[in-house]
Design a protein that fits this description.
Rossmann fold
């Protein structure tokens, strides 16, 4: 069994390597945003709500679930039974090989379409959720206790970079907890990063580490989100812990604590309709507008 798992993961790496070598980088008209932070700070909720807000403004959205927990489809509003039937990218390797031509040992296949747009990639590997939000689920390790996520993340990184964004196309990538994705450089090539924390020491420490790594990777715009704020002292606490890294952020956003989220979850989209006038939703809309502004600015070279 161990040898079978090793062979499968070797195929994953080979497919990722082949895609990477044959990807042609072109100037893009859309933009990419990576959302990261400590586990449990609200990354998935924020990604889901931003996906709907962008879609409602006529953007084509690809929401990428890089977290092995695979909760993003539920948060976006894909019905539970349908979410449970999603075959994640790492469990769909034969299909990846077939459609990209990335078959190890066989060279570059004839079925490859270089620089596909978002809809093309979703038709191959993803699922469409409410509001027309496109979802790509990476999946967890091929088998429990098989070691690091390196092959799986290499495949995801290659496929995400393989997408050539057209005008009004946006990728939002919800990452697993911690800073490992920055160490692997999976976030390299993203235009913006949202670093999410709540007013707890451990969560802020993850963001403090992440902002330095994001800058080292050359991500142009790195934004701070302080989530679940109940009082002004929560913000001061975060600022004090961040210390001299605070000026590294392009923007700061404050999201107030919202009790109604507990009643909504796992599908958080009712917040946008039933609680549209809340300060919580107003904060999410402010973030969406800023991401759109920075994405547009980068594309026109301002």
């Amino acid at each position: 069994m161990i040898s079978e798992v090793k062979a499968q993961r070797t195929k994953v790496l080979a497919a990722a390597d082949t895609i990477e070598k044959h990807t042609i980088n072109e100037r893009e008209q859309g933009f990419r945003v990576v959302i990261t932070g400590k586990g449990g700070v609200g990354k998935t909720t924020i990604t889901a709500l931003l996906s709907h807000l962008f879609s409602q403004k006529q953007f084509t959205i690809l929401a990428v679930d890089e977290d092995p927990q695979m909760n993003l489809p539920y948060a976006i509003g894909v019905p539970r039974d349908e979410s449970e039937r999603i075959v994640p990218l790492t469990h769909n390797l034969d299909y990846v090989e077939e459609k990209t031509g990335a078959r190890p040992g066989e060279g570059w296949g004839l079925m490859l379409k270089l620089n596909p747009d978002v809809s093309d990639v979703v038709n191959r590997f993803g699922v469409k959720g409410p509001d027309g939000v496109n979802i790509l689920v990476m999946g967890t390790v091929i088998q429990a206790a098989t070691g690091c996520l390196c092959p799986e993340n290499a495949l995801l990184e290659s496929v995400v970079r393989y997408i050539n964004l057209r005008e009004n196309e946006v990728i939002l990538m919800d990452t697993q907890a911690g800073v490992e994705h920055f160490g692997r450089a999976i976030a390299q090539g993203f235009d913006q990063a949202l670093l999410v924390t709540d007013p707890t020491f451990n969560a802020v420490q993850v963001v403090k580490h992440s902002v330095r790594l994001a800058k080292e990777l050359g991500i142009p715009s790195v934004h701070l989100i302080i989530n679940r704020v109940r009082k002004e002292s929560d913000i001061k606490k975060v600022h004090d812990i961040l210390g001299d890294t605070l000026p590294l952020f392009s923007e700061q956003f404050i999201i107030p604590y919202e009790e109604e989220l507990i009643a909504c979850e796992p599908d958080v989209t009712p917040m946008l309709s039933e609680h549209a006038s809340s300060s919580f939703v107003a904060s999410i809309k402010e973030i969406q507008s800023a991401l759109e502004y920075y994405g547009t600015k980068q594309n026109v070279g301002i």
